[in-house]
Amino acid sequence: MSVYWPFGIRQGGMRSRLIFALDVGSVPEALQFVDLLTREVGMFKVGKQLFLHAGPQIVQMIRERGGEVFLDLKFHDIPRTVAKAAGEATRMGVRMFDVHASGSLEMMRRTVAEVNKVCRGQGLRRPKVLAVTVLTSLNREDLKRVGVTGGIENQVVRLARLAKEANMDGVVASPHEIAPIRKESGRGFLIVTPGVRLRGGNWEDQKRVMTPEAAIRAGADYLVVGQPIREATDPVATAREIVAAMERGLTPADRRGRPLGAPPPD
Asked: Within a domain: residue 179?
């Protein structure tokens, strides 16, 4: 896979940076979307609902159909438990998975160490390990109720800084916090961005959202989109519309080749 923007046709173009959220409740429905969208998106996000319904074999089913998997289980537990879960995710062959950054520096460090150990020992492809910062369903008042008084941006940047110190590959964060994360974390640090909606779309539980074009322009590396594609009359056409919007978000400098994980030009 190319590490430069924009991606060439051979690497799949901007569609390789679109992740479709398989937030469905049955295996047939999930596989129907996989068969429909494998050539339209770069990855399929498998979250708690589908994983608990179908079990780990859903990852194998998706991969057998040519899809890559972002395992979105947001591990959050004592360091040893999360590290061992990370090892199992690595053995499953997922392309990405995530943990909660608030689980501690030690938890993230041990997770990275376990992933590296498993990959070296078993000759496996190394997944990207991401830290979830603040969920896009939360706002400032939600954080205050759980004792976080410094505001969303401060909390996101603080957790991103912790993730980088732990040698995580990147973070999951709202599009509204991309710029301060980039400023703090610099190059080579991935930002995976949920909370993306087409203009005029339904926000559902999301409170901090942005259009695909704006999120890419802000510097996101990957966009996670579910409901707009999932509920569309024509999911393929909607996925292509989102990819086209992502391409419009590229600046002229991007088109000459911005390194993955690099800040956008001023």
From this structure: yes
Quote the CA–CA distance of 43 and 110 in Å, as a whole number.
26
Catalytic residues: 74
Whether residue 266 lies inside any domain: the answer is: no
In a domain, 265, yes or no: no
Separation of alpha carbons 109 and 100, rounded Å: 12
User: Does residue 264 lie within any of the structural domains?
Assistant: no
**Secondary structure of residue 167 in the 3-state scheme:** coil
What is the chain's percent helix, strand, coil content, to nearest 5? 50, 15, 35
Mean pLDDT by 10 residues, the chain (266 residues): 36 86 96 98 97 97 98 98 98 98 97 98 98 89 86 92 97 92 89 83 57 92 95 96 93 61 58
Distance CA 256, CA 173 (A): 26
204 close to 227: Cβ distance less than 8 angstroms: yes
CATH number of residue 221's parent domain:
3.20.20.70
pTM, whole model, 2 decimals?
A: 0.88
DSSP state of 53: H
Residue span of the structural domain in which 228 resides: 4-259
* CA 196 vs CA 132, 133, 165, 192, 250: distances in Å: 16, 16, 28, 11, 16
